[in-house]
Write a structure and sequence with these properties.
Number of domains: 2
Strand order of the largest sheet: 1-2
Helix content: 40-55%
Number of strands: 4
Strand content: 5-15%
Radius of gyration: 26 Å
Order of helices and strands: HHEEHHHHHHHHEHHEH
Structural class: mainly alpha
Largest sheet: 2 strands, antiparallel
């Protein structure tokens, strides 16, 4: 009996040791520093702010972030990106599909690659985004501005929702603004606040860079949201986003059909091409009605997703940026 009791106690001790050894794995497998070990909390989880870098390079320029105002603005936006969990995660997933489209167009037009983060700030890379003020598409053009930069905008066709054409239009604006300001963060501020407003503020406040301006909060935050987006997308894992490659959205293969006539029934057109009306609109969101009027006999290119593309295998997804995934 005594021997059985001893064996029983040894078994209990062994189980306790195993449980203790496995606790770090069960609670997240990360290092807990002394400050966290001593922290007292009434909630079942803890959060902490991400660190603010001393500087960040944007479009070839080192932006110093040690000064109090810059540091605290950057801190705010890093926290916003870090703790807007679902939005930030969804945008990373979308970037795998849309950055391969945006980046070559920026390069073709001589725009620094970092300006792709404007599309994140503007729309979270949602091609169907529309603001309460009426700005539309991934680059959030207003109707007049879209037309000014070469986009067709009417009730039947709205190329603000055409990713490639809207990106080319955005490049025209960005190049024009850079010729005026000479630095890309001021260009970004003008994309949000308008060139007239930024130029007027610079003149009145005797400033040469938009980061030194006193602006309305939205525009003031805009520049640091851009910097924070770059920081988070450069290393999502550092900010708590652990994605696997199969969770990213891959580009979907499609065929192109060129049309120069009216399409009286887009639903019938979609069916004739082996897809649904919804899928046609999904791949061509610039089509704004149930028909393509085309009074001017312009030539349009419509995307038709392939069956293989629509039924892609997530496990075969190739990450556009290996830093976005943990596997």
């Amino acid at each position: 009996m005594k021997r059985e009791t001893t064996l029983h106690l040894l078994t209990i001790v062994a189980v306790a040791v195993c449980i203790a050894a496995s606790l770090p794995l069960l609670t997240g497998n990360y290092k807990i520093d002394n400050a966290r070990e001593s922290a007292k909390s009434e909630v079942p989880y803890n959060v902490s702010p991400p660190g603010v870098p001393d500087k960040i390079n944007f479009a070839g320029e080192n932006i110093e972030l040690k000064r109090y105002d810059r540091r605290e603005r950057m801190d705010r936006e890093l926290m916003a990106f870090t703790y807007m969990h679902s939005t930030t995660m969804l945008t990373i997933k979308r970037a795998n599909r849309f950055f391969p489209v945006i980046e070559p167009i920026l390069k073709e037009n001589g725009i620094p690659d970092d300006l792709k983060y404007l599309a994140i700030i503007e729309s979270n890379l949602n091609p169907l985004a529309r603001s309460s003020a009426g700005a539309a598409g991934m680059w959030q053009f207003m109707q007049k501005t879209g037309r000014d930069y070469g986009l067709e905008v009417n009730d039947n066709v709205d190329e603000r929702y055409h990713i490639e054409k809207a990106t080319h239009a955005a490049c025209k604006y960005l190049k024009e603004a850079y010729d005026k300001y000479g630095d890309w963060l001021s260009v970004a501020a003008s994309y949000n606040g308008g060139q007239a407003r930024i130029s007027s503020a610079m003149e009145k406040q005797l400033a040469t860079n938009a980061t030194d301006l006193w602006l309305v909060e939205e525009t003031s935050r805009y520049m640091y949201r851009l910097l924070a987006a770059k920081a988070v997308f450069a290393d999502p894992e550092r900010y708590g986003f652990l994605l696997k490659r199969e969770q990213l959205y891959p580009p979907i293969a499609y065929n192109e059909i060129t049309v120069a006539d009216t399409i009286s029934n887009l639903a019938r057109f979609a069916q004739d091409n082996g897809i649904t009306y919804a899928q046609l609109k999904d791949f061509n969101p610039w089509l704004r009605d149930t028909f393509l009027q085309n009074k001017s006999k312009r030539t349009y290119t419509l995307k038709i997703p392939t069956r293989e593309g629509m039924y892609y295998n997530p496990k075969k997804t190739v990450p556009y940026n290996k830093n976005w995934v943990i596997d």
